[in-house]
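User: I'm preparing a small set of examples for a lab meeting where we compare how different chains pack in three dimensions. I only have the primary sequence for this one, and I'd like the structure in token form so I can line it up with the others. Please keep the answer compact; I'll paste it straight into my notes.
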Amino acid sequence: MSEATPALPLFTALQLPKALLDSIKEAGFSNTTPVQALSLPIILRGDDVVVQAETGSGKTAAFALGILAKLNTNDFSPQALVLCPTRELAEQVAETIRGLAKTMGNVKVLTLCGGVPARSQIASFEHGAHVLVGTPGRVLDHLSQQRLDFSKLSTLVLDEADRMLEMGFQDDMKAIIAKTPSARQNMLFSATYPAGIAQLTKHVTPKAEHIKVAAAQTKANIVQRFFNLADTFSAYAVQQLLLDLQPANAMVFCNTKAEAQTIADKLAAKGFSALALHGDLEQKDRDQTMIQFSHGSTRVLVATDVAARGLDIAELDLVISVNMAHDLDTHTHRIGRTGRAGAEGLAVTLIGPQDDYKMRLLEDTMAAPIQLQPLPEPANSAKPLKSDVVTLQISGGKKDKLRPGDIVGALTRDNKLTMADIGKIKVQNQWSFVTVKNTSAKHALSLINIDKIKGKRFRAKAL
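Assistant: Understood. Below is the structure token output for the 463-residue chain.
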């Protein structure tokens, strides 16, 4: 297994089609990340690869470029299948592939996940799809009903394979793989490499080249600080840190769903723009929460590790761990969410009495003693983190042929709102979301609810 820090080449040095190079340039990237530098030459040769790398390493773009580089856009049969542990991650992966493919013409990427009616996915099959991205359970369901034809499938990707094993998808994955052509390219990506992954690798791709991107390569610009929780209630400790540090946004990780909900509720009661994200929430509530946080209308997200797995925030100021994670790999995943794309990141861990043993293990890994600091005392003038924007949900999406430009046009038609009042826009299959300034929200809602967009009436509400 190779483990190295290569000189990071330019994307233009790789054997990529011009259309993909144009997409990469348009996105503002020029140099590869370590995981891309190591894996893309192998992937573009068409060889199998097993990659161990942390969250935020650029692995999604690596396999997306590999898929798109050899795609036959004239054939709408499924040519690539990406399996993910959660719907949230599948949606993120699909969006990344669509973004890179936008200079290639009509590339159809279809998500197959639970939480949405199967009938809407069945209707999409009639139009064909080049790339399928889904969760094992829903993909296997469609396969068992003979709704999918894998005869032209040439690429299989298992993304976050360790999480799929943890969630009990091993049998589903094997059943799906058995239905794919034996002559295919395999790519397996995993943050950790437990025994189960080694066994899965032998089953799926025994001749793959193995790559490990060292942890230090992805968190060199992250500052870690450790605070003594002692007898302090965790919700109060988080509140004090947020008041003192005043981050633009923050993720707070908890080890239990109950604690995540409790801390989020207490922060909200104190005036913070905060929401919880965990497995006890309905799927639609989890979707809306993640959109609000990624759009900036929620500034603090209090989450469990599994629920936050599919959330990818490019710019995250602060990560707080309420007590240490169950294991060191999870701790590494948490702190790796900040300090992306070369930016500096801050990761704070609250250490309680029960964390002593895990703290000693972390000290061994860091090869340096951990200095516990007392909780800060914020200035009297410090105010809770609030947001100056709100996210609106619109009752129409891709199925209604809505595009971001249509929403912008609807909001600016009377010239009372400008582009400066409008933030991020996300168009999903059935819903669309647009973020606007709080001061413009009432007028934006009236524009959408009263007038038509593309000749149709839609309803909008503030989340």
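A couple of notes for your slides: The CA atoms of residues 54 and 204 lie 21 Å apart. The chain is about 35% helix and 20% strand.

User: Perfect, thanks.
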